[in-house]
Amino acid sequence: MSENLKKKYFYVGIIFVVLLIMFIVIKGVDSGITLQTSATGNLSNKKIGWGVKRNTNHEQPDLGSENKKLVDENGDMSVGNKDDKFVYLTFDEGYEAGYTAKILEVLKANNVKAAFFITGHYLNSQPELVEQMIKEGHIVGNHTVNHPSMPDLDDEKLKEEITKLHLAVYEKFGYEMKYLRPPKGEFSERTLAITKALGYKTVMWSFAYDDWDENKQGREEYAKEKILSNTHNGEIILLHATSKDNSNILDEIIKEIKKQGYEFKTLDEFK
Known about the structure:
- The protein is of the alpha/beta class.
- It has a single domain, classed as Alpha-Beta Barrel (TIM Barrel), CATH 3.20.20.370.
- It has nine helices and nine strands.
- Strands 2, 3, 4, 8 and 9 form a five-stranded parallel beta sheet that branches.
- Helix 3 links the parallel strand 2 and strand 3 (115-118).
- Helix 3 (100-109) runs parallel beside helix 9 and helix 8 runs parallel beside helix 9.
- The longest helix is centred in the first third of the chain and has 28 residues, at 3-30.
């Protein structure tokens, strides 16, 4: 082979490699996945279980100073501004129990937008409801593919749990998720860093109650008392859409929270 021909093949090979790299980068941007990640070897993987210690008189609760500081310093969300009467309504959707359609109907009737954190199972089993959420202006958030405790996973497995769901939602609906709620409320300094490196904000909460338990339904008065006595400025409300009680009381709850002087905002408006 002549020297000129060797050089020609060499330059063709260089051009091919450059084009391949450009394709990978563009594909990553198009699909909403941030390719840049940071080293996590020196970050703590101590498992943190999110907890809320309620206050009285509609004051913001105690979220644990160290835990809240960790979330805040990472640029994530736990509770909003204490001076503004804003609340942020969110739902966790691990599976469909038959109540989400009614919840969406109530939200539409009250002109309230919410965030729904879904799993891979929910996406695969209820694509029509996910599509309705998006079309009606709600936020769809990432609750991972399989709902694992995030600190239990190594870096690559954790990235896979987040990005596989992200790509699946994008491919189905052209929708890019940007908020993530850690399954079981469990995270670590390391998992917060990985989540952020993937382009996500972690969303915790400043109010929740034991609505997830299917054996604890039929307590509508209890549920209303818990929710309405704990409203507070900047509140991120976590409700489970698997709760029949929540679906039955949601209209009354929204109306009463508005009567208390609060305004429902979306996570995109968080402050």
